[in-house]
Amino acid sequence: MGKENENGGIGEMGVLKRMKRIVTADLHDAVDKMENPISLLKQYIREVEEQLEKGKQAMAQQYAVEQKYSLLIASEQETAEKRNRQAELAVSKGEEDIAKLALQEKIVSERKLSVYVQQYEMIQEKTNELAGQLEWLHQQYEELKLKKNELAARYQAAAAIRNIQESTVSFKAEQALSGFARMEEKVLEQESYIKAGRLLSANAYKPSVSPYLADEVELELEKLKTKG
User: pTM value?
Assistant: First the structure.
């Protein structure tokens, strides 16, 4: 790994700044300038997806660096313990020169171990920070997707209303009034026809005696009454 990795950095801060710029950007001006704001939101979602992928790669590198230092720490711990046992054995045998060499290597390993532990803790801190910001970005990504769906529905509804309004404006008032007047005439005509039909039904023809035969009819009627 390079020097940047040993310091716990892999260029992730530039990635995270890019993430925040994308997610927290003010979209209002850009949306106002576009005929279809949905396409802009889709573009931002694609950019966030790209940054999420870069963030995942950064996390993978961080975990690799952590693993490297974890192995280095374990190795130096093992070496220090081994050299300490060798020094104890040499002292028990009266071999002070060998004991001194073993203790010297032990001290070197312990110093390296101290440095590795400090660096490992710094790397872990960076990893945790990156993980938290990735989680934040993922939440923003999910919110953007929800907003896209909501905005798409609202945009379609607004477009439909706009089409209706444009159709209404283009419809000439004179034509509408003239058409309604003709319709009203037809309705009145039908109503008059129905009314006339009702009057004819009410005044239907009733049979009556002709004036020319009235006298004869009366005579015949009297005859019938007399016989009765």
Answer: 0.52
